[in-house]
Amino acid sequence: MSETPTDQMIGRLIDGRYQVRSRIARGGMATVYLATDLRLERRVAIKIMHGHLADDNAFKSRFIQEARSAARLAHPNVVNVFDQGQDADTAYLVMEYLPGITLRDLLKDYGKLTPEQTVDILEAVLSGLAAAHKAGIVHRDVKPENVLLADDGRIKISDFGLARAVNNNTATGQALLGTIAYLSPELVTRGIADARSDIYALGIMTFEMLTGEQPYVGEAPMQIAYQHANDTVPMPSSKVTSTPRELDELVQWATARDPEQRPRDARVMLDQLLDGRGHPGAGSPGQQPTALQPTMMVPGITNAAANAETKLLTAALHDGTSATSVLGPMTAAGVIPQSPDNSTALATKARRRKNRGFWLFALVLLIATALGSTGWYFGSGPGSDIAVPTVSTLSPSDAAARIDSVGLKSNESSVYSADVPEGVVIGTKPKDGTRVSKDSTVNVVVSLGLQPITLPPLAGLSQEDASAQITTLLAEVGSVDSIFSTSAEADTVISASRASDDGDVSEGGDYFQGLKVNLVVSLGAIPDVVGSSVAAATQALADKELLAISGEQTYSDSIAEGKVVSTTGPEAPVRAGATIILTVSRGPEPVQVPDVVGKPWSEAKQILSDAGLKLDYNIFADAAPGLFTVTKVTPGSGTSVPRNSNVKVNFSA
């Protein structure tokens, strides 16, 4: 199976039920999308396994295992799993959608958290893990990326993709799983994980929340793994001196290299955290330090000793007698021998906690009963409200029938609309989905179509003024065609037309709001470059965004050589970017002096004049032209001279 590209997955209908909307995140095994459950009409998060992993049975089994593991949990701090299946070549998992961010995003934005924020998040994650551990499930990938912080304040743990049911020693099978920065020493050295491995990862995560950095870093994963297996995690206060002592001890307890020295599961660690809840910073009056487990700080104390201590305290709490504890209260320095008085105080404290728990349970039961009764009254009883149905795009009659069918009344109003065709329902007031009491009246808003307007004369206005006139009437400016014109100044509207039917509205006319008006705007006249040099003509045309090229040259009696005689452009209308061809003068056209020697003066004069030459001669020859004969012409016959040149004529009688 090949991996489905992201742009192909969006919009796809999975298993005939889940409409994929957009991508949320991408992980190593799968991509998570936002989707709509069309059957239950709710938003969900759907995790779709990468196509290239489908042929790997181990990955496929792990993906299915996530659904089974998470589906066994029903806890406020665990992301709910709704469904799992396979559609053609796509394996998917449907989960609760929580809009918000991850703990990793929060750490990126703020660097580190306050002790109070850390305790809040830690309590929620421990509650979720406690439910998993109670169900016999080890998460095996506890890290900030898998802690979701919802916009409404809920905190949930997700991604049980590496989860596995617990036996005495749960091994990875083939290779280490989970993120290397949070792997416990036993996973690194022996590939074995149990609930205490989750506790270790949670301790690393707590260190990161308090300090803004992970305790172990390295250039290669093996360097980090080596430190997990051989080093002791430092106290957070070594990085942030304001860290409370209780949280220092909690991190050290959770990250002990020997699993036997850690809390046995999340419930034990949660109970320890709750004992000091509300006192994350020791030192204020009346504030008690967090009571730590006997095995938390003293590696030499065995589980047997700890169990003996627990049994002794339990017996004392039940019969009210005092007991001498095997171990004293825990401090950073070690064990202090405990007196019988301390044991009696613990028993008294336990009885008070038990009584307080009973009254809290009774109060919760009373509140739940009241909320249930109120919910029935307003949800399905006499006080229930009705959601206004969606009727947009329906006809008015169909909309009224649908509203009447749910126990509401309807009336009709009309408005102009540029988006909804005439006679179609735009919506309702109140809006669809709003809950109203029975027999309430819902206003059905029907479109009258486009609102008529009258455009003012636009020809002769500047483009800016014409655009303002159009938009003021709630129409739109469509295309703007700029052309050269000798009849209108630059930036002046030459003509205007309706985009819908090309009707001319240059002098104003009827139209509709929301539709476009096309404008033709003048660029002014094309520059007159006749008589200019080629360089000057080219620059003048370029200033108007016209391209000038030199064309043929021609003789001109009136335009000096090298100057522009005329221009040739495309047929009107001429737009910016058009090409203008320049015709350049070669100066006056040359002529050859005719051979008129020996001809009568009258005939010779006519021939020379017709050739375009001027005559230099004795004017007395004109008195009797028939008596004189041309004897010499200067320049001589056949010589090329410019037209209108002077020719000297000699003649005799």
TrEMBL record:
GO terms (BP aspect): negative regulation of fatty acid biosynthetic process
Entry keyword set: ATP-binding, Kinase, Nucleotide-binding, Serine/threonine-protein kinase, Transferase
CDD domains: PASTA_pknB, STKc_PknB_like
Record-level Gene Ontology MF annotations: ATP binding; protein serine/threonine kinase activity
UniProt catalytic activity: L-seryl-[protein] + ATP = O-phospho-L-seryl-[protein] + ADP + H(+); L-threonyl-[protein] + ATP = O-phospho-L-threonyl-[protein] + ADP + H(+)
Coiled coil: none
EC number(s) per entry: 2.7.11.1
One Pfam family per UniProt: Pkinase
Protein name: non-specific serine/threonine protein kinase
